[in-house]
Structures are given as structure tokens and as C-alpha cells.
Write the C-alpha cells for this entry.
Amino acid sequence: MRWRIYEMRCLTTLTMLRGQIVHGVIAGALRSIRYGQSVTPKMVKESVTALIREQYGESARKLWHIDNRPPGRKLSSITSLVEHYYNLPNMNERARDAQQVAWLCVENLISSDFWKEIAEGSPSTWAEIEEESFPSFDIDGIQVYTKIDFAHSNGKNTIIDWKTGASNEQDRKQLILYSMYAKAKWEWEPCETTLAAVYLQPELKVEQFSPTEDEIAQVRAGVKESFQQMMDVEPAYGPADVANFPIAESRRDCAWCRFQGICEGRVLSSEF
């Protein structure tokens, strides 16, 4: 049972995979610019195609399964999709749709004036973000982990977050949290930092702002409240009490849950 739980913990979805690939391709394009190489929409679309084929193929061939896993590969390094794991229908169509959206995301960005401004700026103003690390900072004794997409100080300290999905109310809070990390990391004053949510599809849309002191205080309080809520249901030692984790009331909430295969009240995704 423990191995099945770990197996399910490593699952992702096509939507999440699409976002990861788009972010990775953009990061690669930025590295190319840093090293003086040109980047075109055709190049980034080809990169998207190659990565989707490779990672979708891993999941389709069930390389995550113990009998199929390549020597030396950890389960966590192999793509395993919820859609394959729970046998959702129309997988080829779903994959084509994911590829089309990913293409649109990178083409919209690389063809934009927003990207041109970045590409024509000096890479010396780009903030170093360690790709192999998981940056964190401290909020009143709570270690908070972040993942900033891109930051630069060309004209004004700026943090950019690439968005492959629709806008939601959490986006602003996320960027404000990033500004607090930048204060700890680079001594950037949050209220003097430009925060940009860049929505990549269906059309490119850039929403920029600088946080207020009140917003920063609200996000700080939200982090502390969220941490306390987790501590209230997660014991420091021993197993958690299942009674503290009730089954979702909406059947729709089950559709993309990684752990539906071991849930007594599950409704498998294939039924949707």
C-alpha cells in the first residue's frame, strides 16, 4: 500500500505537464538569449513538441511501473499521467489539445513586444535564480518555499510569472509572496518592485502592479493562517487521523485527485 501511495503521489495531469513544459521551454529560451543565441517562435514550438512527445510517451508506455522502469531512473523522474493511470478516454485527443495550447503560449510570448523588451535588455540585469534549488525564506519562523519564473532589474526591479491558465484571485497573492522572497534574497523593497503576471493564452495579457504595505501584511497573515491549519490536522509524530480529512462533497472534485485509487468514497475519473 505504501508503494501505491508513493506511485500516486508522483502522478501529474496533462494540464500540469503542459504548464511545466511551457515554463521549461521559456527558461531554455532565456538561457539561449543569455548566451547570445537567437530564439524564434518556430524553435520554441519544436522544443514543446519534442518534450510533449517524450514525456507523454513515458507515461503511455508506463515506464513508472516497477516492471518497466529503466535502470537508474527514479519513479519521481518519470512522467506518469493521471489520465493514463486511471484510463481516461480520448487520450490522443487530449494530448493534441495540450500541445496546441502549449504552442499558442510560447508563440504568443516569443512574438510579443514584452518578450522583445526582455531579449533586447542586458542579461547582466537578470536576477540569478538557481534552477536546481528550491528557494525558501522565513516568515516569522515559517520556512516558505517559492519558485520564481524570472526576475530582472532593467530600469526597475521586476518579478515575472508566466501563466498558462486563466487568471484567478490567487495570482496576485502569489506574486506578492515572491516580492517578499526578493526582499530576503536580493534586498528588493516589495512596494518598489514591479510584479507581472503574464497570461500566455488565448492572447498575451500582462497585468503589472506593485504591492501595498497592507497587501503584504495580508499575505503574511495568510501564510501564517494556512500553516496553522496544516498543523492542526497533521500530527508531529505518528499517523494522521483520517477523520480530519473528509471525502469531498462534490464528485467533480474527485476527477483529478491523484489518490482516488485508494479512496473508499472515490468516483474514478473515467466516469467523467
